[in-house]
Amino acid sequence: MTGASSGIGQATAEAFARSGAKLVLAARGRDALEKVAEGCRKFGMEVVAVPTDVNDPAAVAALRDPDAVMDFRVVWPARCPSQFRRSRGS
Known about the structure:
There is one protein chain. By secondary structure, this protein is α+β, with helices and mostly antiparallel strands. The chain has helices at about 5-20, 30-40, 55-60, 65-70, and strands spanning about 25, 45-50. The protein has a two-stranded parallel sheet. Helix 1 packs parallel to helix 2 (about 30-40).
């Protein structure tokens, strides 16, 4: 889950953790991301926190790396902010 360190991303991560999901959390800020991951682990869930800037294609591709995410099933494709931009006139 990208954007997991605050706001809607954090709330969504916590909701999934409460419901029993294993999580791979991604966001730019390492400290805030780890704080959210620790909160999700309190629900007894496995959580991997991967500092990631979704504007960096190599960083997003690293989320697919099995060594980075252990044996988690990653739901792909990740949604990046650039995918939501509209061209002028649309």
